[in-house]
Amino acid sequence: MSLALIPDFDLSARNTLALRARSRFAIALEDAAQLPALLTEAGSRNLPLRILGGGSNVVLAPDFDGITALVALKGKAIVAQSDDATIIEAAAGETWHDLVVWTVGRNLGGLENLALIPGTAGAAPVQNIGAYGSELADMFESLIAYDRQTGAERSFTRQQCAFAYRDSVFKQQPGRYIVLSVRLRLPRDWRPNLNFAGLAELADDPALSPEAVMDRVIALRTSKLPDWRQTPNAGSFFQNPIVTPDQAAPVLAEFPTAPNFAQPDGRLKLSAGWLIEKSGLKGFRLGPVGISERHALVVVNHGGGEQSDIAALARHIKETVSTRFGIQLHEEPIFM
């Protein structure tokens, strides 16, 4: 199979932080059948190969001396139905929000709380994306991924994905697997998940639909979070820290009403955005990058920022929060 490698490819418009970035070569990955030849080509040139989806959860380096494969696998369909569920399948290159809109347009509930999350369907299980009291693992059925170690495609069940809070086996073994398609199980007996501020009041609507919940989620997100197309950002930049009661005690002693959520293992999840804001960093700026004035969890590029600028800002945020509260923050985006 011939490969159309594009030399000196500009990725500045391929990442939602709009960081200046170039790749020595790039190629559109439109068919999984390209992968063996692509890996062989990368090996013969002695170049690293990396996979890039929507560029929404990455912090790209200015120059990548390798091959960037841009995931362009397309297609989505209902593949099975039973009395209790509808199974849908989406190729890895499908835009996640478009997939949510597509399901809701067919009156299929389950994904509406995850509306407007940037990125692709293939990236969603890597991060186990979540928002408004829901996460991908809740609806996950299975996926197909290409294993770069064995050179073969492999199916993963929910258990094999080892999903956790913003985590999965794919994140734990970076670079090994390339997600090709994802299957999701959407319940026929849909019940809205309204266990989040801003959604609870919808429970009074006897005719509540997945579309109505999706519309409310979109309204909430757009009211709080800057649009990456207008203000370049990578969404939530830090994970909400999950800590022991002893670690949380000083925070709650000083701020009894601080957001905290009990976890099944007895630990508490704190709000990273709240910790950053209470550390006095909301709206803080460091050179060409900074923290959004609208939401303290969002790092933005005001123009001309590079990976090193984002790294310096992230260090400053982590050090400031650690000094103020004794809590360690961890980034969500991947530096690559």
Written account of the structure:
Helices cover 25% and strands 28% of the residues. It contains 9 helices and 20 strands. Strand 6 and strand 7 form a beta hairpin. The model has no long low-confidence stretch (mean pLDDT 96).
Descriptive terms for the model:
alpha+beta, 25% helix, single chain, 336 residues, four-stranded mixed sheet, five-stranded antiparallel sheet, 28% strand, globular
Number of strands: 20
Our Rg estimate from Cα atoms comes to 21 Å
Name the helix and strand elements from N-terminus to C-terminus, one letter apiece: EEHEEEEEHHEEEEHHEHEEHEEHEEEHE
Helix count, per DSSP?
9
Beta-strand share of residues: 25-35%
Which ranges are low-confidence, i.e. pLDDT below 50, for 5 or more consecutive residues? none
Mean pLDDT comes to 96
What is the terminal separation in angstroms? 28 Å
Helix content: 10-25%
What form results from the Cα inertia axes? globular
The secondary structure category is alpha+beta
Largest sheet, strands/sense/barrel: 5 strands, antiparallel
Report strand order across the widest sheet.
Answer: 6-7-12-10-11
